[in-house]
Amino acid sequence: MGGGGERISTAGYVGTDGRHRNISLAEEYPGHRLHLEVGERCPLVLGEATNIGLHERDVVDHLLRNTGDDRNDLFRRQPEAFRRPLVETLGRFPHGDIATQIGGDLVSVTSIISNPSQDPHSYEADAQVQLSLSKADVVIQNGGGYDSFVDSLLKGANNPKVVLLNASTISGYDQKPATGEFNEHLWYDFPTVKKVVSKLVSTFTTEEPSRAGTFAANASRFTEALGQLQATEAALRSSSAGEGVAITEPVPLYMLDAVGLVNKTPGKFSEAIEAGTDVSPVILRQTLALFSDRAVKLLAYNDQTSSPETKRVLAAAQKAGVAVVPVRETLPAGKDYLEWMTDTLASITAALK
Ligand SMILES: [Zn+2]
Q1: In terms of DSSP bridges, do strands 21-29 and 9-16 run parallel, antiparallel, or are they unpaired?
Q2: 185 CA distance to ligand 1 middle (Å)
Q3: How far is the CA of 93 from the centre of ligand 1 (A)?
Q4: What is the CATH number of the domain that holds 327?
């Protein structure tokens, strides 16, 4: 959670749904936000809110003064005090950040992996994750085989009311295509992200009908920004469609396809890297030749997994002066989803110049 690191800002609000008050505190730390919501399960805080008779904004200030800066300490002392409307399947995972953007301080996103350099493909869930899932109102799963552990953990979590959103299902894509493999890296696919956003709006609205307007406004801001990114893709497509690119893994292919770029990497290379299996010398030679032959304009490089083969590919691109575009499975430190995608498209734009 938010422990450690310097707090940048704190914001809060007090709302009421006619039955009880909800007090929400949102804190921002370098690299991530922390949202806590205090609801009816906190008699101490409710007592303060109703008895002191302060203006709502003052209640928040009062709470902040009286709980000090260590929100984790408050959390330890009153474990039942916080409502957690949302659990993301993987910490610093794109869908979790998107949910935060749509829900604002009305949702609390719980991170399952907190280490940004963890490769989610090799992540193994533990009992703590099951506990989070048992308390969540909403769980977002990427699906497509990416985080199957969620299914089995939810079965044992005794949380019959949980709403499970599966991004792969929401995408509407065929997950068992006759040719090739389903690409589960859906955060590089803006049409799918838009569908996930509308699903989040309807889900959050069902949970908190009185805040429907907030969710809709947040979503329209977010969708407008996504539209700008799609306009950038379209502009790049009209200037650079047909240019060759290389990848180490299929991670960014939705975006590269949207830009009209042609993946020249031998399929056996990227499949082996993603699966963590050996690359044959012939396939490695063919891949390295893409750079010496200047057959590609850029290398999209996943720096969350590296092997001797990917390092050789990276070195070959650098030696040939081919631009390297970093791609990832989780958010880079200090960036939200839209900033990260904006940066990625800027790197592709620069590489294609
Ligand atoms: Zn992946």
Answers
A1: antiparallel
A2: 6
A3: 12
A4: 3.40.50.1980
Instruction: Tell me the CA–centroid distance for residue 305 and ligand 1, in Å.
Output: 9
* Cα 192 to averaged position of ligand 1 atoms, centre (Å): 17
* Ligand 1: centre distance to CA 92 (Å): 14
Same domain, yes or no: 178 and 43: yes
Contact 17, 208 (CB under 8 A): yes
Stated pTM of the model: 0.75
Number of domains composing the chain: 2
**DSSP string for residues in 126-156:** -HHHHHHHHH-SEEEE--TTSSTHHHHHHHT
Look at residues 227, 249, 276 and tell me which one is the last residue of a structural domain: 227
Say if 202 falls within a structural domain.
yes
CA of 81 to the centre of ligand 1 (A): 36
Q: Virtual CA dihedral for 267, 268, 270, 272, nearest 10 degrees? A: 160
Cα 184 to ligand 1 centroid, rounded to whole Å: 7
The residue type of 326 is: P
77 C-alpha to ligand 1 centroid (Å): 39
pLDDT value of residue 324: 97
**Domain co-membership, 198 together with 272:** no
Distance 152 CA to ligand 1 centre (A): 21
Ligand 1 centroid to residue 329 C-alpha, Å:
6
**Confidence at residue 113, expressed as pLDDT on a 0 to 100 scale:** 64
Domain end position, chosen among 197, 227, 257: 227
**Owning domain of residue 51:** 9-227
Residue 4 within any structural domain of the chain: no
> Separation of 283 CA from ligand 1 center, angstroms?
21
Q: What is the mean pLDDT of each run of 10 residues along the chain (353 residues)?
A: 42 43 46 41 30 36 45 30 43 80 81 67 76 84 86 85 93 93 94 97 89 93 98 98 97 97 96 89 97 97 89 97 94 89 98 95
Residue 152 confidence (pLDDT): 84
Residue 232 forms part of a structural domain: no
Establish if 317 belongs to a structural domain: yes
Burial of 8 (0-12, 13-18, 19+ CB in 10 A): exposed
Per-residue model confidence (pLDDT) at position 79? 27
